[in-house]
């Protein structure tokens, strides 16, 4: 399952991710990570059986863990098929089809939200 780990400023300098992984013997497949001096966000895949233990370990150290189970949704009426989503998506979810329309492969989506921020017509959202 895909998860998002938010690390707030009060623990940003602490090795809470490494400590939690060692403590729970849980492997995380990190697909994206963004850090600065005030905030951290990690998108990772974890085995379903390991989720509860890694979540408890991370949250006990001050992180917030969210399950990413809402795929990206494209409003076809709003989308102008400009391809901005194609150029920014780290998961290669979007591509042009044979008729230069936008094709999606939802299975590749890591729900990072990068395409949502870049879409000039606000045609993308995370399903809720």
Automatic annotation (TrEMBL):
It comes from the Archaea. InterPro entries: 4Fe4S_Fe-S-bd, 4Fe4S_Fe_S_CS, ACT-like_dom_sf, Fe-S_Ferredoxin. GO terms for molecular function: 4 iron, 4 sulfur cluster binding; metal ion binding; oxidoreductase activity. Residues 69-99, 100-128 form the 4Fe-4S ferredoxin-type domain. Keywords: 4Fe-4S, Electron transport, Iron, Iron-sulfur, Metal-binding, Repeat, Transport. PANTHER family: ADENYLYLSULFATE REDUCTASE, BETA SUBUNIT (PTHR43687), L-ASPARTATE SEMIALDEHYDE SULFURTRANSFERASE IRON-SULFUR SUBUNIT (PTHR43687:SF6). This is 4Fe-4S dicluster domain-containing protein.
